[in-house]
Amino acid sequence: GCFEESLSYYRRAIELSKPDDENLGMLRLYYAETMLTAGKLEEAEREALEVVRADPGRYQAWHVVARVRKETGRTEEAREACLAAKASAPDDPTPIVLLAAVEEEAGNVSAAASCMLQAVALSSGDPAICVRAARLLVADDRPEEAVEALTSIDAKARKRAWGLVRREESLAGLLEDERVRELFPETAEEIEERQENGLKSPATECR
User: Each residue of 94-105: pLDDT tens digit?
Assistant: First the structure.
């Protein structure tokens, strides 16, 4: 299939590359990522580990390792891979978002929420990160911080953010907060109209 063609291409490209080829590390990373997508988890982890052994700064390979370990239930090892990625790229929120996913899957909601707060601080108002942080903070009974996460959303991305917020039933209560309504002025009238008509909030309805 398509994955096999891609894997064959990367294998051939790697075989033809010289050991000092500056593109070799990236080719092997793409190879590992494709194996992960194809469900070849053991091979993906092995290849990604070879990538970081050759180039510790290529932190994207640690993402592959962490995802494999997460999907195979190796929580502690997945944490270690996330932290290794974070150490290599301290200004990138991606490793922290992945660490939050590891913690949430392990049932550590408070730790996951705290990770997402760190990710929000690095994300430049990315709506997906801010909304995910808000969801976890609400789950951890930290509504004030959840509101703060939403108010961190970049103004230019609020329309997209609203689409994410309205899909999260757990965030319905935050729509009563004036600060949240101010983020989405075009939706305030919709919320009020629904309340007057005794309808469910958009977040609840779209769940």
Answer: 999 999 999 999
**How buried is 185 (Cβ within 10 angstroms: 0-12 exposed, 13-18 middle, 19+ buried)?**
exposed
Rounded mean pLDDT of 124-150? 97
Question: So what's the pLDDT on residue 159?
Answer: 87
What confidence tens digit (pLDDT) does each residue in 34-44 have? 999 999 999 99
The residue assigned the tokens 């590359």 is 17
Distance CA 80, CA 204 (A): 37
Taken in order 188, 190, 196, 201, is the CA torsion positive or negative? negative
| Residue pair 92/123 in contact by the 8 Å Cβ criterion | no
DSSP H helices, 140-184, are: 143-151, 158-165, 178-183
Contact criterion met (CB below 8 Å) for 160 and 182: no
The whole-angstrom separation of Cα 116 and Cα 82 is: 13
Whether 135 contacts 124, CB under 8 Å: no
**Strand, coil or helix: what is 91?**
coil
Q: Look up residue 107 and give its amino acid.
A: G
